[in-house]
Amino acid sequence: MADTAAPTTSPTGATTSAAPKRRRSRLRRALIVAGSILGGLVLVIGGLGAWFLYSPAPAEPELAASVEQHTITVDGLERTYTTVVPDDLPADAPLVLAFHGSNADSAAMRTVAGYRFDELAVERGFVMAYPDGYEQTWHGCRAETPYPARIDDIDDVAFAEAIVGAAASDLGIDTSRVYATGLSNGGHMAIRLGAERPDLISGVAAFAAAQPAPANDTCEWSGEAVPTMFVLGTADPINPYEGGEAGTLAGSLGDVYSAEESARVIAERNGVAGEPVVERTGDDVVRTAYGDDTDAAVVLYTVEDGGHVVPNPVYAQPRVMGATTAHLDGPLVAWEFFAASER
Question: Has this prediction a pTM greater than 0.70?
Answer without folding.
Answer: yes
